[in-house]
Write a structure and sequence with these properties.
The complex is a heterodimer of chains A (about 325) and B (about 325).
Chain A: E1 2-5, H1 6-20, E2 24-28, H2 44-48, E3 53-55, H3 60-72, E4 76-81, H4 91-98, H5 101-104, E5 114-119, H6 134-138, E6 144-146, H7 151-163, E7 168-173, E8 180-183, E9 196-199, E10 204-208, H8 211-225, E11 230-234, E12 237-239, H9 243-253, E13 256-263, H10 268-280, E14 289-293, H11 302-306, H12 312-322
Parallel strand pairs in A: 2-3, 2-4, 4-5, 5-7, 6-7, 10-11, 10-13, 13-14
Antiparallel strand pairs in A: 1-8, 6-12, 9-11
Helix pairs in contact in A: 1-7, 3-4, 8-12, 9-10
Chain B: H1 6-11, H2 22-47, H3 62-70, E1 77-79, H4 85-90, H5 95-102, H6 136-149, E2 156-161, H7 168-179, E3 184-190, E4 193-194, E5 197-198, H8 211-215, E6 219-223, H9 227-242, E7 248-253, H10 271-278, H11 282-288, H12 293-316, H13 322-328
Parallel strand pairs in B: 1-2, 2-3, 3-7, 6-7
Antiparallel strand pairs in B: 4-5
Helix pairs in contact in B: 2-3, 2-11, 2-12, 3-9, 5-12, 6-7
Classes of the chains: A alpha/beta (about 325), B alpha/beta (about 325).
């Protein structure tokens, strides 16, 4: 077991899968010798060379589409889109091509690609570099959607995503790259579609993913001191959604709050809340609540930015309100 | 993989007039004729209600697919378009499964899920038609990248139209392919219309082949109604690609024999210009180059029989099972 940073865990997964499978290759902007803006691909260029660690021109729409073609030609491309905000220029490749090729071809055209990207606010990067856009992908049949919160999960889920035969959108959070955690030395993978109870509790369930998992755990720690027992369920994979784990925890505590950084309006929380109410209404003590980002673009000024995103205090307050 | 390479075939028994073997000429003629008959049949079947949705006939453009596909090998890839029946046929598709797909039947290439705009044939290395104009260009580029990653000796021919050449991914893909020296041939089928918008009204520079050199590759303009010329241009481009010299842009000039799709009468088309292009019919141009009329007749008879059987097969094939379809949808 070694302690490593989230970005190092991702790097290890890429390194090991590229070493093992010569058809795995990565492409994106400045991911070669430079190692990527967040250093996730550091060292891979020297290890695997320019044919498998490809520094692309600034042309996201094309290299994402090219990943679809390369996948159809029998490889496993991992595309690196620097900010999730930039995926909006490659939506045709993602939504109309990657997500639908296997379906439209009657099962002849599997697209085993991974699109790695990162989102979220927190570094004063303003409105076009701070978004949480996972709901866009959540809505599209044919895609898998992964949003890990820890180095352990980042490693295990990236391994599974690369080996998976469906296109997978793998969204990291810019504030998680430097966070640390234990990752076993031996190779392992985490199945897509399996949530994890990150902390057990009896009174309230917090359903969350990505960076908000850390905030929920901190809120749970504070609430424990007040005598409120909080369960934190980290979804880890949004598609497939682990409905079983969600319903099990909802039935156990009877009180559910969904926490995500993305805007509340049209966010995945609304869908999960509806699913819980459809399936487990009789086991609930009250309505499913949401603590989510405000319905606004993210401002540059740090004080303004801060009020757009749920804080630990917001989560604590929401829990106290329903208990 | 086991089929004979057209390159090798071309070396023996060359015809005096074209420098191309009779076998290749007949292969191209078979495809031009099959596309022509197939598309005319599709129009009828559409009007009779056997085919729904959109059908974009390749009528008038047959020589491009037939010429380009004769110049590549079975294990080379193609990427097709919404006007894709011709590419599919020329790459070796089974007319039965094609027609069944176009009628939405369970026996079709895509089990009735794709239809005319999405035919895909893995066994022919046809990486699919596409309903989004221009979307196939990066896919073709990426397939070439896949070939490079796997260190294979194959090429990709990406078909697209003048309309697609105005999409951003066209320029991006040409630059990308030239930057990485990819084994891809960009086959720009200039049929002079993006639905109803003429080329002259949508390009600042109507010389489309010149966009090749702008991105760092040869740009070749050929008479797209002459299958032999398309074959020769493609063959040179294939040789370049296999020698590691990178991509080529080929602009093949042609003209639709009608509107954008079956229900579009194409009233916006200049009838005089259309008549001039019809006079340069790809079928007639190729026919004149083949002296052995008996062989031509055999090819035509075979196609007609094959097409008859394809239509019967498609009509008699079962609809896809709704229950099976519903069961295939994951619950998440």
């Amino acid at each position: 077991m070694a302690e490593m940073m989230y970005r190092e865990a991702l790097n290890r997964a890429l390194f090991e899968e590229m070493k093992k499978d010569p058809t795995v290759f990565i492409m994106g902007e400045n991911i070669g010798e430079y190692g990527g803006s967040y250093q996730v691909t550091a060292g891979l260029f020297n290890q695997f060379g320019p044919d498998r660690v490809i520094d692309t021109p600034l042309a996201e729409a094309t290299f994402t589409g090219a990943a679809v073609g390369a996948a159809l030609a029998g490889t496993r491309p991992v595309v690196d889109i620097l900010f999730v905000d930039f995926t909006t220029v490659c939506m045709d490749a993602i939504v109309n091509q990657a997500a639908k090729y296997d379906f439209m071809s009657g099962g002849q055209g599997e697209v085993p690609m991974v699109l790695r990207t990162q989102g979220g606010a927190g570094n004063a990067l303003a409105a076009q570099h701070s978004q949480s856009l996972e709901a866009l992908f959540y809505h599209i049949p044919g895609l898998k959607l992964v949003m890990p919160s820890t180095p352990h999960d980042a490693y295990g889920l990236l391994v599974s995503s690369i080996r998976d035969n469906q296109p997978t959108i793998f969204v990291e959070h810019k504030l998680l790259y430097m966070t640390k955690g234990d990752v076993p030395d031996e190779e392992f993978s985490i199945p897509l579609g399996k949530a994890e109870v990150k902390k057990e509790g009896d009174d309230v369930t917090l359903i969350t993913y990505s960076l908000m998992t850390l905030k929920c755990l901190e809120a749970a720690r504070l609430l424990e001191k007040e005598g409120i027992s909080v369960e934190v369920l980290d979804l880890r994979t949004l598609k497939p959604l682990d409905q079983e784990a969600v319903l099990e925890s909802a039935r156990k505590t009877g009180n559910v709050i969904i926490v995500h950084e993305a805007c509340k309006r049209g966010g995945v929380g609304g869908d999960i809340a509806a699913m819980i109410m459809e399936e487990a209404y009789d086991d609930l003590d009250g309505p499913v609540m949401r603590v989510c980002g405000r319905d606004t673009s993210i401002p540059y000024n740090l004080a303004l930015e801060k009020v757009c995103i749920p804080t630990v205090e917001d989560i604590v307050e929401a829990v106290i309100k329903i208990t | 993989m086991s089929k004979k390479s057209p390159q090798k075939e071309a070396a023996k028994g060359k015809s005096a007039t074209t420098g191309i073997s009779l076998e290749i000429l007949l292969q191209m003629y078979r495809n031009v004729y099959a596309i022509r008959q197939f598309e005319l049949k599709c129009k009828d079947l559409y009007r009779e209600g056997f085919i729904r949705g959109y059908i974009h006939p390749y009528l008038g453009e047959e020589a491009i697919a037939a010429g380009a596909c004769a110049a590549i090998r079975p294990d080379d890839y193609i990427v097709s378009t919404h006007r894709g029946h011709g590419h599919c046929i020329s790459k070796g598709a089974d007319l039965k499964r094609m027609m069944a797909e176009i009628m939405g039947k369970a026996t079709g290439y895509c089990k009735g899920r794709g239809g005319s705009m999405h035919i895909f044939s893995k066994e022919d290395n046809n990486l699919g038609a596409n309903g989004i104009v221009g979307a196939g260009i990066p896919i073709a580029t990426g397939a070439a990248m896949g070939i490079k990653v796997k260190k294979e000796q194959r090429v990709v021919v990406g078909f697209f139209s003048d309309g697609a050449a105005n999409q951003g991914v066209f320029g991006e893909s040409l630059n990308f392919a030239a930057t990485f020296n990819l084994p891809v041939i960009f086959m720009l089928e200039n049929n002079h219309y993006a639905v109803s918008t003429p080329v002259e009204c949508s390009f600042g520079n109507c010389d489309l082949a010149c966009k090749g050199p702008a991105y760092g590759m040869p740009g070749v303009c050929v008479e797209g109604n002459d299958a032999v010329k398309v074959y020769q241009a493609t063959k040179s481009a294939v040789e370049r690609a296999l020698n590691g010299e990178g991509p080529t842009l080929i602009e093949a000039k042609t003209y639709r024999h009608g509107g954008h799709h079956v229900n579009d009468p194409g009233l916006y088309m200049d009838q005089e210009v259309l008549a001039a292009w019809r006079a340069k019919d790809p079928l007639d141009i190729l026919k004149k180059k083949i002296k052995d009329k008996k062989k031509l007749k055999t090819v035509e008879d075979d196609v007609e029989q094959e097409l008859y059987e394809a239509v019967e097969f498609a009509k008699n094939s079962p609809e896809p099972s709704v229950a099976e379809f519903l069961a295939s949808i994951p619950n998440f």
